[in-house]
Automatic annotation (TrEMBL):
Organism: Aspergillus mulundensis
Name used for this protein in its record: F-box domain-containing protein
Gene Ontology process terms (BP): SCF-dependent proteasomal ubiquitin-dependent protein catabolic process
GO cellular component terms listed in the entry, alphabetical order: SCF ubiquitin ligase complex
Cross-referenced InterPro entries: LRR_dom_sf
Domain of life where this protein originates: Eukaryota
Protein backbone atom coordinates (compact mmCIF):
# COMPACT_ATOMS: atom_id res chain seq x y z
CA UNK A 1 0.00 0.00 0.00
CA UNK A 2 2.89 2.36 0.76
CA UNK A 3 3.95 2.26 -2.91
CA UNK A 4 0.57 3.36 -4.27
CA UNK A 5 0.55 7.09 -5.20
CA UNK A 6 -1.65 9.17 -2.83
CA UNK A 7 -3.85 10.48 -5.67
CA UNK A 8 -4.60 6.90 -6.77
CA UNK A 9 -5.44 5.92 -3.20
CA UNK A 10 -7.89 8.81 -2.94
CA UNK A 11 -9.54 7.69 -6.18
CA UNK A 12 -9.87 4.15 -4.82
CA UNK A 13 -11.28 5.38 -1.52
CA UNK A 14 -13.85 7.57 -3.28
CA UNK A 15 -15.17 4.48 -5.06
CA UNK A 16 -15.48 2.73 -1.70
CA UNK A 17 -17.50 5.51 -0.07
CA UNK A 18 -20.51 3.22 0.39
CA UNK A 19 -18.60 0.31 1.91
CA UNK A 20 -18.24 0.61 5.68
CA UNK A 21 -16.46 -2.76 5.75
CA UNK A 22 -13.49 -1.09 4.02
CA UNK A 23 -12.69 0.69 7.28
CA UNK A 24 -11.52 -2.62 8.73
CA UNK A 25 -8.72 -3.34 6.21
CA UNK A 26 -5.98 -1.59 8.19
CA UNK A 27 -5.18 1.66 10.00
CA UNK A 28 -4.26 3.52 6.80
CA UNK A 29 -7.55 2.62 5.14
CA UNK A 30 -9.43 3.69 8.26
CA UNK A 31 -7.70 7.08 8.39
CA UNK A 32 -8.42 7.83 4.73
CA UNK A 33 -11.88 6.28 4.43
CA UNK A 34 -13.47 7.40 7.68
CA UNK A 35 -13.92 11.08 6.60
CA UNK A 36 -15.33 9.88 3.25
CA UNK A 37 -17.76 7.24 4.52
CA UNK A 38 -18.90 9.36 7.45
CA UNK A 39 -19.21 12.57 5.44
CA UNK A 40 -23.01 12.17 5.12
CA UNK A 41 -24.95 9.94 7.55
CA UNK A 42 -28.19 9.84 9.52
CA UNK A 43 -28.69 9.79 13.28
CA UNK A 44 -29.35 6.04 13.35
CA UNK A 45 -25.81 5.21 12.25
CA UNK A 46 -24.25 7.64 14.69
CA UNK A 47 -26.36 6.55 17.67
CA UNK A 48 -25.39 2.90 17.05
CA UNK A 49 -21.70 3.69 17.56
CA UNK A 50 -20.34 2.95 21.02
CA UNK A 51 -20.32 5.97 23.32
CA UNK A 52 -16.53 6.21 23.52
CA UNK A 53 -16.08 6.40 19.73
CA UNK A 54 -19.15 8.47 18.85
CA UNK A 55 -17.39 11.86 19.03
CA UNK A 56 -14.62 10.68 16.68
CA UNK A 57 -17.17 9.96 13.96
CA UNK A 58 -19.22 13.09 14.71
CA UNK A 59 -16.11 15.18 14.03
CA UNK A 60 -15.98 13.85 10.45
CA UNK A 61 -19.64 14.45 9.56
CA UNK A 62 -20.45 17.21 7.07
CA UNK A 63 -24.08 16.30 6.38
CA UNK A 64 -26.38 14.88 9.07
CA UNK A 65 -29.92 13.63 8.52
CA UNK A 66 -32.04 13.59 11.66
CA UNK A 67 -35.14 11.41 11.95
CA UNK A 68 -37.48 11.67 14.92
CA UNK A 69 -36.59 8.79 17.25
CA UNK A 70 -37.49 10.14 20.66
CA UNK A 71 -35.58 11.71 23.57
CA UNK A 72 -33.05 8.88 23.81
CA UNK A 73 -31.53 9.78 20.45
CA UNK A 74 -31.66 13.46 21.40
CA UNK A 75 -29.71 12.67 24.55
CA UNK A 76 -27.02 10.72 22.67
CA UNK A 77 -26.44 13.31 19.96
CA UNK A 78 -27.02 16.44 22.00
CA UNK A 79 -23.69 16.03 23.82
CA UNK A 80 -21.62 15.75 20.65
CA UNK A 81 -19.77 18.43 18.75
CA UNK A 82 -19.90 18.61 14.94
CA UNK A 83 -17.00 20.88 13.90
CA UNK A 84 -17.29 20.06 10.16
CA UNK A 85 -21.08 19.99 9.85
CA UNK A 86 -22.39 22.30 7.13
CA UNK A 87 -25.61 20.53 6.11
CA UNK A 88 -28.45 19.56 8.43
CA UNK A 89 -31.39 17.55 7.10
CA UNK A 90 -33.93 17.25 9.89
CA UNK A 91 -37.54 16.28 10.48
CA UNK A 92 -37.63 16.64 14.26
CA UNK A 93 -36.82 18.86 17.21
CA UNK A 94 -33.15 18.40 18.03
CA UNK A 95 -32.45 21.86 16.66
CA UNK A 96 -31.87 23.74 19.91
CA UNK A 97 -28.79 21.79 20.92
CA UNK A 98 -27.31 21.72 17.45
CA UNK A 99 -27.80 25.46 17.02
CA UNK A 100 -25.27 26.10 19.78
CA UNK A 101 -22.70 23.64 18.39
CA UNK A 102 -22.98 24.03 14.59
CA UNK A 103 -22.85 27.73 13.90
CA UNK A 104 -20.94 27.07 10.69
CA UNK A 105 -24.00 25.43 9.09
CA UNK A 106 -24.48 26.51 5.48
CA UNK A 107 -27.49 24.36 4.57
CA UNK A 108 -30.54 22.95 6.37
CA UNK A 109 -33.61 20.99 5.24
CA UNK A 110 -36.57 20.75 7.61
CA UNK A 111 -39.44 18.56 6.50
CA UNK A 112 -41.60 18.64 9.63
CA UNK A 113 -41.32 19.25 13.34
CA UNK A 114 -41.62 16.55 15.96
CA UNK A 115 -44.96 16.33 17.79
CA UNK A 116 -45.39 19.15 20.27
CA UNK A 117 -42.45 21.19 18.96
CA UNK A 118 -43.10 24.82 18.05
CA UNK A 119 -41.26 27.07 15.62
CA UNK A 120 -39.06 28.37 18.44
CA UNK A 121 -36.22 25.88 17.70
CA UNK A 122 -36.18 27.07 14.08
CA UNK A 123 -35.95 30.69 15.16
CA UNK A 124 -33.16 29.80 17.57
CA UNK A 125 -31.28 27.97 14.82
CA UNK A 126 -31.69 30.88 12.38
CA UNK A 127 -30.46 33.31 15.04
CA UNK A 128 -27.37 31.26 15.86
CA UNK A 129 -26.42 30.13 12.34
CA UNK A 130 -25.92 33.36 10.44
CA UNK A 131 -23.77 31.51 7.87
CA UNK A 132 -26.80 29.72 6.35
CA UNK A 133 -26.80 29.88 2.55
CA UNK A 134 -29.40 27.26 1.59
CA UNK A 135 -32.65 26.55 3.44
CA UNK A 136 -35.46 24.15 2.59
CA UNK A 137 -38.63 24.24 4.71
CA UNK A 138 -41.53 21.79 4.37
CA UNK A 139 -44.66 21.65 6.44
CA UNK A 140 -46.42 24.25 8.53
CA UNK A 141 -43.36 26.03 9.90
CA UNK A 142 -43.59 29.41 8.15
CA UNK A 143 -44.79 31.78 10.84
CA UNK A 144 -44.43 35.53 10.31
CA UNK A 145 -41.45 35.46 12.71
CA UNK A 146 -39.69 32.75 10.70
CA UNK A 147 -40.25 34.67 7.45
CA UNK A 148 -38.88 37.84 9.01
CA UNK A 149 -35.80 36.05 10.32
CA UNK A 150 -35.20 34.44 6.92
CA UNK A 151 -35.35 37.86 5.29
CA UNK A 152 -32.58 39.08 7.61
CA UNK A 153 -30.07 36.34 6.78
CA UNK A 154 -27.31 38.16 4.91
CA UNK A 155 -25.82 35.08 3.23
CA UNK A 156 -29.02 33.24 2.26
CA UNK A 157 -28.80 32.41 -1.46
CA UNK A 158 -31.36 29.64 -1.98
CA UNK A 159 -34.73 29.27 -0.26
CA UNK A 160 -37.21 26.45 -0.90
CA UNK A 161 -40.67 26.49 0.65
CA UNK A 162 -42.92 23.44 0.45
CA UNK A 163 -46.01 24.90 2.07
CA UNK A 164 -48.70 27.41 1.19
CA UNK A 165 -47.68 30.97 1.98
CA UNK A 166 -50.56 33.05 3.32
CA UNK A 167 -50.51 36.70 2.29
CA UNK A 168 -51.61 37.64 5.81
CA UNK A 169 -48.51 35.89 7.16
CA UNK A 170 -46.28 37.90 4.84
CA UNK A 171 -48.00 41.12 5.90
CA UNK A 172 -47.59 40.23 9.57
CA UNK A 173 -43.85 39.75 9.05
CA UNK A 174 -43.63 43.50 8.29
CA UNK A 175 -40.73 42.99 5.89
CA UNK A 176 -41.08 46.57 4.66
CA UNK A 177 -39.39 47.67 7.87
CA UNK A 178 -36.23 45.75 6.92
CA UNK A 179 -33.95 48.02 4.84
CA UNK A 180 -32.98 45.23 2.44
CA UNK A 181 -34.88 41.93 2.88
CA UNK A 182 -33.27 38.81 1.40
CA UNK A 183 -30.17 40.75 0.29
CA UNK A 184 -28.31 37.79 -1.27
CA UNK A 185 -31.19 35.62 -2.51
CA UNK A 186 -30.51 34.00 -5.89
CA UNK A 187 -33.12 31.24 -6.10
CA UNK A 188 -36.63 31.00 -4.65
CA UNK A 189 -38.73 27.84 -4.94
CA UNK A 190 -42.36 27.77 -3.80
CA UNK A 191 -44.02 24.35 -3.83
CA UNK A 192 -47.42 23.37 -2.51
CA UNK A 193 -48.88 26.80 -3.18
CA UNK A 194 -51.56 27.53 -5.74
CA UNK A 195 -50.87 31.18 -6.44
CA UNK A 196 -51.89 33.12 -9.51
CA UNK A 197 -49.00 34.55 -11.47
CA UNK A 198 -50.17 38.01 -10.48
CA UNK A 199 -50.24 37.13 -6.78
CA UNK A 200 -46.50 36.55 -6.94
CA UNK A 201 -46.15 40.31 -7.17
CA UNK A 202 -46.10 40.78 -3.41
CA UNK A 203 -43.35 38.19 -3.08
CA UNK A 204 -41.46 39.63 -6.05
CA UNK A 205 -41.09 42.99 -4.33
CA UNK A 206 -39.29 41.23 -1.46
CA UNK A 207 -36.81 39.16 -3.47
CA UNK A 208 -35.73 41.66 -6.09
CA UNK A 209 -32.26 40.17 -6.51
CA UNK A 210 -33.32 36.59 -7.15
CA UNK A 211 -32.06 35.12 -10.41
CA UNK A 212 -34.22 31.97 -10.34
CA UNK A 213 -37.90 31.60 -9.43
CA UNK A 214 -39.79 28.30 -9.32
CA UNK A 215 -43.49 28.55 -8.39
CA UNK A 216 -46.75 26.57 -8.41
CA UNK A 217 -49.81 28.35 -9.76
CA UNK A 218 -53.54 27.98 -9.27
CA UNK A 219 -56.51 29.58 -10.93
CA UNK A 220 -57.21 33.24 -10.18
CA UNK A 221 -60.81 34.13 -11.16
CA UNK A 222 -60.20 37.86 -10.74
CA UNK A 223 -56.78 38.75 -12.14
CA UNK A 224 -55.76 42.37 -11.87
CA UNK A 225 -55.36 43.60 -15.42
CA UNK A 226 -52.69 45.92 -16.77
CA UNK A 227 -50.23 45.06 -14.04
CA UNK A 228 -46.76 43.60 -14.32
CA UNK A 229 -46.06 42.14 -10.86
CA UNK A 230 -42.76 40.53 -11.83
CA UNK A 231 -41.23 43.79 -13.04
CA UNK A 232 -39.28 44.22 -9.74
CA UNK A 233 -37.30 41.08 -10.58
CA UNK A 234 -34.83 42.90 -12.80
CA UNK A 235 -32.16 40.24 -12.29
CA UNK A 236 -34.42 37.22 -12.90
CA UNK A 237 -32.87 34.86 -15.44
CA UNK A 238 -34.78 31.60 -14.87
CA UNK A 239 -38.52 31.14 -14.33
CA UNK A 240 -40.28 27.80 -13.82
CA UNK A 241 -44.06 27.64 -13.51
CA UNK A 242 -46.19 24.66 -12.51
CA UNK A 243 -49.84 25.35 -13.30
CA UNK A 244 -52.55 23.23 -11.69
CA UNK A 245 -54.69 23.45 -14.83
CA UNK A 246 -54.35 25.03 -18.25
CA UNK A 247 -56.94 27.64 -17.26
CA UNK A 248 -54.41 28.87 -14.70
CA UNK A 249 -52.51 30.36 -17.62
CA UNK A 250 -54.23 33.23 -19.37
CA UNK A 251 -53.12 35.45 -22.26
CA UNK A 252 -52.59 38.19 -19.69
CA UNK A 253 -50.02 36.02 -17.94
CA UNK A 254 -48.02 36.01 -21.16
CA UNK A 255 -48.24 39.81 -21.21
CA UNK A 256 -46.82 39.74 -17.69
CA UNK A 257 -43.91 37.53 -18.73
CA UNK A 258 -42.88 39.88 -21.54
CA UNK A 259 -41.98 42.37 -18.82
CA UNK A 260 -38.88 40.21 -18.20
CA UNK A 261 -36.77 40.77 -21.34
CA UNK A 262 -33.64 39.60 -19.52
CA UNK A 263 -35.14 36.11 -19.00
CA UNK A 264 -32.96 33.27 -20.31
CA UNK A 265 -34.87 30.18 -19.12
CA UNK A 266 -38.67 29.80 -19.19
CA UNK A 267 -40.26 26.45 -18.31
CA UNK A 268 -44.04 26.06 -18.06
CA UNK A 269 -45.64 22.78 -17.00
CA UNK A 270 -49.44 22.63 -16.85
CA UNK A 271 -51.59 19.68 -15.90
CA UNK A 272 -53.98 19.02 -18.80
CA UNK A 273 -57.46 20.30 -18.10
CA UNK A 274 -60.59 18.25 -18.78
CA UNK A 275 -61.35 20.08 -21.99
CA UNK A 276 -59.25 20.89 -25.00
CA UNK A 277 -57.54 24.28 -25.11
CA UNK A 278 -57.37 26.19 -28.42
CA UNK A 279 -54.05 26.70 -30.17
CA UNK A 280 -51.75 29.05 -28.34
CA UNK A 281 -49.75 30.04 -31.41
CA UNK A 282 -50.66 33.74 -31.09
CA UNK A 283 -49.83 33.78 -27.38
CA UNK A 284 -46.44 32.16 -27.95
CA UNK A 285 -45.62 34.64 -30.72
CA UNK A 286 -46.43 37.52 -28.41
CA UNK A 287 -44.40 35.92 -25.64
CA UNK A 288 -41.38 35.25 -27.87
CA UNK A 289 -41.37 38.84 -29.13
CA UNK A 290 -40.74 40.09 -25.60
CA UNK A 291 -38.02 37.58 -24.62
CA UNK A 292 -35.10 38.12 -27.03
CA UNK A 293 -32.51 36.60 -24.66
CA UNK A 294 -34.28 33.28 -24.16
CA UNK A 295 -31.94 30.26 -24.27
CA UNK A 296 -34.25 27.56 -22.89
CA UNK A 297 -38.00 27.36 -23.54
CA UNK A 298 -40.27 24.54 -22.43
CA UNK A 299 -44.07 24.39 -22.66
CA UNK A 300 -45.38 21.04 -21.44
CA UNK A 301 -49.12 20.50 -21.53
CA UNK A 302 -51.14 17.91 -23.42
CA UNK A 303 -54.12 20.21 -23.89
CA UNK A 304 -52.27 23.11 -25.50
CA UNK A 305 -52.19 22.90 -29.28
CA UNK A 306 -49.34 24.55 -31.18
CA UNK A 307 -48.18 24.42 -34.79
CA UNK A 308 -45.26 25.55 -36.91
CA UNK A 309 -46.34 29.15 -36.25
CA UNK A 310 -45.05 28.84 -32.69
CA UNK A 311 -41.78 27.34 -33.86
CA UNK A 312 -41.28 30.09 -36.43
CA UNK A 313 -42.03 32.79 -33.84
CA UNK A 314 -39.44 31.36 -31.45
CA UNK A 315 -36.85 31.09 -34.21
CA UNK A 316 -37.36 34.64 -35.45
CA UNK A 317 -37.52 36.29 -32.01
CA UNK A 318 -35.19 34.16 -29.89
CA UNK A 319 -31.98 33.74 -31.87
CA UNK A 320 -30.04 32.57 -28.80
CA UNK A 321 -32.35 29.61 -28.14
CA UNK A 322 -30.38 26.43 -27.35
CA UNK A 323 -33.08 24.12 -25.96
CA UNK A 324 -36.74 23.99 -26.94
CA UNK A 325 -39.39 21.58 -25.66
CA UNK A 326 -43.00 21.75 -26.88
CA UNK A 327 -44.27 18.15 -26.87
CA UNK A 328 -47.77 19.13 -28.06
CA UNK A 329 -46.45 20.87 -31.19
CA UNK A 330 -47.11 18.97 -34.43
CA UNK A 331 -46.09 20.64 -37.66
CA UNK A 332 -45.40 20.23 -41.35
CA UNK A 333 -41.71 20.75 -42.08
CA UNK A 334 -42.60 22.20 -45.48
CA UNK A 335 -43.93 25.26 -43.63
CA UNK A 336 -40.29 26.12 -42.94
CA UNK A 337 -38.94 25.80 -46.48
CA UNK A 338 -39.48 29.42 -47.57
CA UNK A 339 -37.87 30.91 -44.46
CA UNK A 340 -34.31 32.17 -44.47
CA UNK A 341 -32.03 29.50 -43.06
CA UNK A 342 -31.00 28.83 -40.44
CA UNK A 343 -34.11 29.56 -38.41
CA UNK A 344 -32.40 28.24 -35.25
CA UNK A 345 -28.65 28.92 -35.55
CA UNK A 346 -27.83 27.82 -31.98
CA UNK A 347 -30.49 25.25 -31.08
CA UNK A 348 -28.93 22.02 -29.80
CA UNK A 349 -31.89 20.16 -28.27
CA UNK A 350 -35.47 19.93 -29.55
CA UNK A 351 -38.49 18.04 -28.24
CA UNK A 352 -41.59 18.21 -30.38
CA UNK A 353 -44.64 16.26 -31.46
CA UNK A 354 -44.74 14.25 -34.66
CA UNK A 355 -44.17 15.67 -38.14
CA UNK A 356 -47.31 16.19 -40.23
CA UNK A 357 -47.16 15.04 -43.87
CA UNK A 358 -48.80 17.11 -46.61
CA UNK A 359 -52.28 15.80 -47.34
CA UNK A 360 -52.85 14.19 -50.72
CA UNK A 361 -49.19 14.18 -51.68
CA UNK A 362 -46.73 11.34 -51.90
CA UNK A 363 -44.33 12.76 -49.37
CA UNK A 364 -40.62 12.15 -49.72
CA UNK A 365 -39.01 11.97 -46.25
CA UNK A 366 -35.63 12.98 -47.70
CA UNK A 367 -37.03 16.36 -48.77
CA UNK A 368 -38.39 17.04 -45.30
CA UNK A 369 -35.09 15.93 -43.77
CA UNK A 370 -33.11 18.30 -45.99
CA UNK A 371 -35.28 21.29 -45.05
CA UNK A 372 -35.16 20.39 -41.37
CA UNK A 373 -31.38 20.06 -41.36
CA UNK A 374 -30.95 23.47 -43.00
CA UNK A 375 -33.07 25.19 -40.36
CA UNK A 376 -31.48 23.36 -37.40
CA UNK A 377 -27.76 23.10 -38.28
CA UNK A 378 -26.49 22.70 -34.68
CA UNK A 379 -29.12 20.24 -33.46
CA UNK A 380 -27.54 17.24 -31.72
CA UNK A 381 -30.41 15.86 -29.61
CA UNK A 382 -34.06 15.39 -30.57
CA UNK A 383 -37.16 13.76 -29.10
CA UNK A 384 -40.67 13.18 -30.40
CA UNK A 385 -44.00 12.80 -28.59
CA UNK A 386 -46.97 11.07 -30.21
CA UNK A 387 -49.61 13.18 -28.50
CA UNK A 388 -52.55 12.00 -30.64
CA UNK A 389 -51.48 8.34 -30.92
CA UNK A 390 -51.42 8.54 -34.71
CA UNK A 391 -49.46 5.56 -36.16
CA UNK A 392 -49.24 7.15 -39.63
CA UNK A 393 -47.61 10.30 -38.26
CA UNK A 394 -45.30 8.19 -36.12
CA UNK A 395 -44.18 6.22 -39.17
CA UNK A 396 -43.67 9.38 -41.21
CA UNK A 397 -41.71 11.02 -38.38
CA UNK A 398 -39.51 7.94 -38.07
CA UNK A 399 -38.85 8.00 -41.85
CA UNK A 400 -37.84 11.67 -41.77
CA UNK A 401 -35.62 11.05 -38.77
CA UNK A 402 -33.92 8.10 -40.47
CA UNK A 403 -33.28 10.13 -43.64
CA UNK A 404 -31.90 12.99 -41.58
CA UNK A 405 -29.62 10.64 -39.60
CA UNK A 406 -28.33 9.04 -42.80
CA UNK A 407 -27.48 12.46 -44.23
CA UNK A 408 -25.55 13.36 -41.08
CA UNK A 409 -23.58 10.12 -41.30
CA UNK A 410 -22.75 10.78 -44.96
CA UNK A 411 -21.50 14.26 -44.03
CA UNK A 412 -19.29 12.86 -41.26
CA UNK A 413 -21.29 14.43 -38.44
CA UNK A 414 -21.72 12.64 -35.09
CA UNK A 415 -24.92 10.63 -34.61
CA UNK A 416 -27.94 12.31 -33.04
CA UNK A 417 -28.77 11.73 -29.41
CA UNK A 418 -32.35 10.52 -29.43
CA UNK A 419 -35.09 10.91 -26.82
CA UNK A 420 -37.75 8.64 -28.30
CA UNK A 421 -41.05 8.96 -26.46
CA UNK A 422 -43.31 7.68 -29.24
CA UNK A 423 -44.29 4.37 -27.71
CA UNK A 424 -43.49 4.02 -24.03
CA UNK A 425 -45.88 5.89 -21.73
CA UNK A 426 -48.90 8.16 -21.64
CA UNK A 427 -48.25 11.81 -22.43
CA UNK A 428 -48.84 12.95 -18.86
CA UNK A 429 -46.37 10.42 -17.42
CA UNK A 430 -43.68 11.32 -19.92
CA UNK A 431 -44.17 15.05 -19.55
CA UNK A 432 -43.99 14.79 -15.77
CA UNK A 433 -40.78 12.75 -15.87
CA UNK A 434 -39.16 15.29 -18.18
CA UNK A 435 -40.06 18.22 -15.92
Amino acid sequence: MEKIPPELLIEIFNHLCGSAQSLRVNRQWFQHLMPIIWKAVDDRHLSNVTRGRRQMYASAIKSLRLTYRGPRIHEKLGRLEFPRLNTLISDQGLLDRLANQCRQLSRIELSRLAPGVTTEPILHLLDKCSSLERISLHGDVLSDQVIRRLAQLRKLRKLKVGHYIEHDTIDAANLESIPQPFPSIEKLTIEGSELSLLSLGKIATLVRKTKKLDASLGYDPNPALNQHPLVPLTELRELKIRAQMTDSLSPHDFVTLTALPQLEVLIIWAEPFHRSTPSWDDHIRYLASGLPNLKVFSLICGAIGTTAKSLIALGECCQSLEKCKIPAMEFNILDLQLLQAPLFPKLKELTTGTFVPERGLNEVPEKHAMIFASQFPELSCIGYYDVKSDPDRCDFTASVHEAWSNNRTAEGKPPLREMNYLLDMSFDERAYLQW
